[in-house]
Amino acid sequence: MELMTEYHGSVKIRFGDVDNAGIVYFPRILDYCHRVFEDFFQDLAGISYDRLINTRRVGFPTVHISADFKRKMKYGDELDIRLSVTRTGNSSADFRYRIFSKASGEELADVKLTVAAVDMDAFKAVRVPEDLRAAFAKVPGGA
User: Fold this and answer.
1) In the chain, what are the domains?
2) Catalytic residue status for 43
3) Which of 60, 69, 104, 141 yields a CA-CA distance of 20 to 30 A from 89?
4) Beta strand residue intervals within 55-143, DSSP E
């Protein structure tokens, strides 16, 4: 198993992502994290997130979020979003997204999410499938 401490994704902030104050509208940051989450499944679990949901019928809805915003993010910035899995339980997992400026290297935000593994038909908790558990174990970043 290839082991790394974090999975890296990148996002460029677009004009429509900023609010009247000229900074990223905070819900967009959660969208950026989810984009990296989807890419993670494709790249490290070997399955696209839409296939996971629509074919395998397993989903990972978010059940808890906490976020610390450290520096402003503005139009045109390029972000390095570093995903790690800090805990994998029976039917849930904790994901951490550390967001950095590609230009300066400064940490801009630290977002933590707990997701639950669910059967998409019954929308009830299920055990995290073993192949996905193995993918989560590839990025055991620190809490």
Assistant:
1) 7-136 (3.10.129.10)
2) no
3) 69
4) 58-59, 62-69, 78-88, 92-101, 107-116, 118-119, 124-125
